[in-house]
Amino acid sequence: MKENSENDNIQIKLNAADEVAEFVAAAERCDFDIDVFYNRVIVDAKSILGVLSLDLSHILTVRCAERDSKFEKALQKFCVA
C-alpha cells in the first residue's frame, strides 16, 4: 500500500441506508483510517452511526490514510463526477 496525500479526496453520494451499510463494510475491511466529511463535520467511515448522522442529501468527501485497490474499487459505485 502506498501513502495517500491529503489532497487525494474522493467524492461520493450515498442515497440510502443500504448503501451506507455497504460503504461502511468496505471501510471496515481496511486496516487504516478512513474519514468521511461534509462541511466541518468529520466522522469515521467505519462507524455506521457516524456516516448515517451526516446529511446524505449532499455529496460527501472520503479521505483515506493509505491507498487500497479493493477499497477504491468498492468506492467506484458511489463516486460522483
Short characterization:
The protein has 81 residues and is of the alpha+beta class.
Task: List its salient traits.
3 helices, 22% strand, 81 residues, four-stranded antiparallel β-sheet, alpha+beta, Histidine-containing Protein, Chain: A
CATH superfamily: HPr-like
Terminal-residue CA separation: 25 Å
Return the average pLDDT rounded to an integer. 91
Query: Widest sheet: strand order?
Result: 1-4-2-3
* Broad shape: globular
Number of strands: 4
Listing every helix as H and every strand as E from the N terminus to the C terminus, the arrangement reads EHEEHEH
Runs with pLDDT <50, length 5+? 1-5
Beta-sheet strand percentage?
15-25%
> What is the CATH fold-level name?
Histidine-containing Protein, Chain: A
Q: Count up the domains.
A: 1
Continuous helix count: 3
| Structural class determined from secondary elements | alpha+beta
